[in-house]
Task: structure prediction
Amino acid sequence: MMTFEKTVLVLEDEIIVAMDIGDELIDRGWHVTDVVGTLDAAMRAVAAATPDLALLDVNLRGSQSFDLALDLKARGTVVVFLSGNSVNDLPEALRGCAFIEKPVNYDALHSALLAAARPGGTAAAG
Amino acid sequence: MTAADGHSTPILVCGIILSHETPGSLDKLLGGVAVLDNLCLVLIGDAAGIGLPVDWTVAQMTEGFIPAGRFVITGALDAETVFEDMARRFGARAIGVRLGQSPGNGAIPGVVEAGGMTLAEGAEKDTSQGFDMTAPVERLAEAIVAICRRASDSATRLEPLTTQETREVCVLLRQATGHDFKHYKETTLSRRILRRIHVLRCDTFDDYLSLLKSSPDEARALMRDLLIGVTAFFRDPDAFAALDAKVMAPLLAQDGPQVVRLWLAGCSTGPEAYSLAMLVHERLAAAGHTRDVQIFATDLDERALNVARVGVYSAAVVEALSPERLARYFTRIGGRYQVNRELRQMIAFSPHNLIADPPFSKMDLIVCRNVMIYLGAHLQKKLISVFHYALRDSGYLFLGSSEAVTGHGDLFRVIDSRARIAQRKDVGVPDVGPRQPVAAASVTWQTHAGAPSQNIAQISQRIVLDEFAPPWLIVTDDGQITFASARAGPFLDMPEGQFVNNLIRVVRKGIRTGVRAAWSEALKTRRKSVHEGLTVGPDNDRRRTRIVVQPMPDLGEEAGTYMVVFFDLGQAAAGDAPIPANPDSERLFADLEAELFQAREELEHTVQDLEGANEELKSSNEELLSMNEELQSANEELESSKDEIERANTALEDANTDLVNLLSSTQIATIFLDAAGNLRRFTPAASEFYNITGSDIGRPLRHFTHRFADLPPMPALDDTGVAVETEAVREDGRTFLRRLTPYTTESGAATGVVVTLVDITAAKQAEDRIRQSREQLWFVTEHAPVMIAQVDADLRYTFVNSAFARLSGRRSEDLIGHTLQEAMGDAAFALAEPHVAAVLAGRNVSYDMELERDGTPLSLTVNHAPEFDVGGRVIGFVTAIIDVTQGAIAEKALLASEARFRASQQVSPNGFMMFTAKRGAGGGIEDFVFDFANDASLALVKMTNDDLIGKAMLDVLPGNKASGLYDQYVELVGTGEPFQRTLGYDDDGISGWFELTAVRVADGCAALFTDITARKEQERQIFENALRVRSILDSVVAFVGALTPEGLLTEANQPALEVAGLSRDDVIGKPFWEAFWWSYDPAVQERLKQAIALAQQGKPSRYDVKIRASGDNFIFIDFLLMPLLDAEGRVVELIPSAVDITDRLHAEDAVHQNAERLSRTLDGVSTLVGLLDADGTVTDLNATALAHVTVPKASLLGLHFSETPWWDVSPELRAQIRQMVDTAATGSPSRADMPYRSLDGAIRWVELNIVAIKDEGGRIIALVPCGTDITERRNSELALAESRERLHMATRAARLGTFDFNPSTGAVRWDARSIEVLGLSGADVPFAEFLAMVHEDDRHIVQDDLALGHEPGRAATNSTTYRVNRSDGTLIWVEGHASIIVDGKTRAVGTLQDITERKRAEERQTLLLHELNHRVKNSLATIQAMASHTLRHSDSPEAFRDSFSGRLFAIAASHDILVGNEQSGADLEQLIQSQIGPYASGDQGRLVLNGPQVTLGATVSHALGLILHELATNASKYGALSNDEGVLRIDWHLIDDRGRDSVLIDWVERKGPPVVEPTRRGFGSRLIAMTLSHSLDGNVNMTYNPEGFAAQLTTRLVADDDL
Result:
């Protein structure tokens, strides 16, 4: 199994889903640094170490992850959204980010992360 | 009226000749052209009888004046004058219209000449009268409209034709008519062709062309148009004056034998020709001598020539003439003028084509005016030549004002340029035909020489020619020099005097002979000829010269052009010098030459003259030839007519011979006299009456003695041609019938008398004998006591004697001519018939018959004797009847009756007397002796029987003598004629009357006296009454009279006479029906006769009739004819009477018409109208009313209005109607909407008005119910009300507010709901204020939609949604609908609705859906993850299935609880039960739960549910729930974990299998730990005690997203 250098942060409030994604990404060779369920946890994790990639759920217990995403982008992190909502709900500034709908097609997720991981890549996926 | 009145200039002027024959035509025409507002109509004729619209301007026309204006009526002015004036003033814009068969058939004059059109009412396309169009009047009107329309846009529509187009027409014309107009002026052609296109209303030229091709008629019509000449008497008077002075005067100045020939070419309808003739006539009259003057007037147009020959012109045409000329040369015929015969005979009019036909010749004057202007230049030129030819030397040519002979100075000399008079020049050979141009050769050469593109060769040639070539001349074969080269001068010498251009004469003398010789030779041989050795020049420099004459064959053999070249051969040698000396011979030579030259010149002149004469002879010859032909044909005609005459002559001679033989053989004396009474012819027998012999022919008959003893004078014959017969007796006693008959020629004129004398002596004598025998016979038969009758074969009486007549009881004239059957009656005839048949069979018949007459039986013996004609046929029979009745029987009966009579008379109230004559010695009556007198008669004369009987009348009643009664008695006895007499008497002062009837009895009289005093009195009274009645009747009755029973008028009252302007004598005593009153109509007379016939039967008649009054007026009378009966019922008199009912009839008629009109009007209205009595009874109903009932009108009349079928709805309705009628009857109108029963039974509604009609006194005379059906209105009102109600309900239900907005003012009207919805301060909050309330993001929507940006005409319904900030601070959503209505002003009407709630609901729903979507996806993600996890940790598919289903159920169970609690939260205990229950079931007490009631948030519930599931699964697999004894105890406490409400759950397992801490952490424990830490902010502490597994869970009650 090949592995990837890029670190990945997973923010997903549904624990089972988060666990599964984390397991799956790890299984597929990604370097998952953190799997977190709340914004606070995510921010703490980012503060500790800025990830190369961030897989963010949009809605998190009534909050949205857009501010975090902007912050991450500012830090150079490539953000991939994961949500049950539609891509249209994204603010204008984040429209360029890749967007993976739930339920998750792991192959698609993998491809999106691969594309995003390529230097300068912010491929859209769907 | 003048043009300054402001009337628009008419496009067209339409003159209409009226006719009374078709009075409707004008109306139709005017109706048809009513659409034209720029048409001037001029009516010509007596318009009074036509009945014109009132708005016509009536103007009496004055001569030659048409007022401008719309409509004008002329008086009875000459139509032609009007039309000519019209045409002059309006030209092609004039239209002439003839309606009906107006006077003046034929095309309307003047109009066509001016280019206008002529229309006539008549059959379609009748070209016979020369109109442009004939059609029914409707089509005429259409045509006028079309023409007018065309005229209006003619500027654009009609362009002149192109040359090509006119050419095409010309070609067609030549084919159709043989006349070639090709060279006519194009503009003229174009204009006149266009006129035809106009006339025919062709749309395009091509249309016209095809018409022209197909119709020869059109070709002729066009030709006529093209040939139209404008002509007038003395047109251009100045020019004519000049002609008179400068041409006529010299031409006619002298007397002379030579005929003066004048030719007028193009004379048209002749005025110019007559003008010319007048000039001639005047000149000759002034000069006082006669000249033979021939005037030829020719034209192409035969029609025009016909007009010219007749010479009748309208007043307008001749108005240019001076009154003197008019009086001298014209005769007035009605409104027109005819040229006198004298003038007409001066002119020969004949058809002639100036261009194609050979010209006339030897004319002294040719007048050809305004012909050439129509011709092209080519033809003009040709014409001038023709004229030159046709004129004598110095003849004159007179042209039109715009024509001239300019350019023909060689042929004509201008005499008067203004008047265009020229004189023929005497030029040698006239140039009639085309001729080769003389200088053709040199011109050709020159053209080459001057050509710009010369090459060097040409230039060099020219230089050579100019510089080095010898000089030369080009000469025509007649010696004319046409070109001379440079340096030819030395060889030429122009002679003095008139310029000549002749080779021989202009070459220098020295070389002249040489030139002549060379010239002659070259001419003769047509080859080059050379002559040398000639010298020329002054003596000191004589040059030798060679002359070469060279024909120029390059130009063609016939060119006739020669080159003469002079070669200078250098200085003449001395020997060449002419012999210097003999001056005599020199002079001789010169003289000879001069002589020769003169001779030549003379010869040349002679030749020219000869040629001229030749030409003239040629044309004379042509003329002679044609004349010869004419003469030839004339001769042939004469020959044939001579044969005819000879044949006629032979026949005549034969007839004459026959006649003579006839006359001499007849022995009838016949004498023919001429008109003067002279003997013309007589038969030999005539000499027996007159002493005449054959030599006396020609002498008056009255000069001869005759042999008549008694000759009536010769009566004058009247014109009737009827013979006059008289008898004359000759000396020898023979009688002759002298018959005078007019001697009539075949034409019927009486030119004499024929007297015939026929011997009628024998006839006379026979006649006398017959008369005598007839008289004798009559005498015998009349006096014989035998009844005699003569009957013809038809059984008609031809003679009866009076005895026979008495027997049959009829007058003889009632028998003669009648049949036996008629006279005898059918019964008697039946008896007689066998005898009649026998006698008609030729046998004598005799029989006896008995018959009864007046009660007396008669015994008769009847004899019938047949009569035979000469052929033995029975032609009738004679009947003789003898009365054989026994006289004694009669006598006895008489006596008996006398006794009875006397007895009866004795008791009679009437007086009765008998007396016998007392005769003297001479037999004369001396007196009467009374025999008998009854009592009444005695009382009458106041005597006793003794006083009277046996006494003499004159003794006892001497008064009878004085009264004449005695003499009457005497007469009675003498004649037997009874008499009757009315006598007055005076008895004791009482006057009385009696009537005496006297009859002869034997030799005496019986007198019967009847007292008629009472009757007389009655009669007097009747008379007086009648007088009174008459005077009364006179004043009231139009007619009263009296008739005899036979119908003779005996009396008529004064008014009856006056009304008819009659005198009594006119009618009294005459049959009533023949009187003036009735005689106007046989039918009326017949009716009257019927009435009289009825009256004769005692039946009165009465009828209305029209009688004639004076002045042919009529009076309507109510005529009554009453029979007047006497006591016995006999009709004694008929009394006609009449009342004038003219006024009544008129009044009745008017009333009837009014009623009719009213009824029709009412029938026409769609309203129900009726007429009621004042009490409401129906008296009339209109059609609309009746259309609603099935019963006939009659059955409704008389009903009360309320009882009519319309109100057959309910008794209440009838009562209401009755109430309305009653109300109306009080005078106040009543009105109500009422239902009524319509025809189909349906109930309809009517707006019923009943009004009262009052008379002048205010009394109500009628009620008029008037009903308008308002069912539809009512239905729509109801529908409207319903829809309003529905709208209201709808808006209320929809909680709609409405408003009405005026964008232009910004004003708005809000309804209550709008105010409520928007929270407005009032109903008229302006738009701006409202707009301010609208959410600023939505204001544009409202503005765009409603107001400021609206588009005019937009009326669509719009729907908008916008937000409004209410004044109370709430924001509401409003949905508005608005319609922009544009009805005069623009309005927006709209509704608005508070849709805030709906909006919110919608928003919620949207959110919900969004959320649902999110959650479902999340759930799916969760399930996916769970499946994924479970799979990852499962050893087998069965394990996976169990684990996965368990976890899925756990989630579902949590969910169930949440849903059961309506999502607000889940009860913890319930959650535990649901998750663990499935594993702990069956063993009560093994599961112990203990804790407070705790409600958990949804997220928490979900997560906790899963955790509990995992724990329960473990317990069931490995822990307390895996065996049968294990106990699971769960306790929970609410705690405060770091400031948040949390719960601590203690999970303790006991008595389960021994616990072994797992070697690796399963998914379950990891899930539990992760869940709590990850999302619930909680934690778990799991301990694997040996006695049992235990776990302590801490979790918040509510997660962040559950808040």
Q: What stands out?
A: Chain B touches chain A at residues 1410, 1413-1418, 1420-1426, 1428-1429, 1432, 1499, 1503, 1506, 1566-1567, 1570-1571, 1574-1575, 1599-1601, 1603 (CB under 8 Å). Residues 867 and 1360 of chain B are 136 Å apart (CA to CA). DSSP finds 47 helices and 59 strands in chain B.
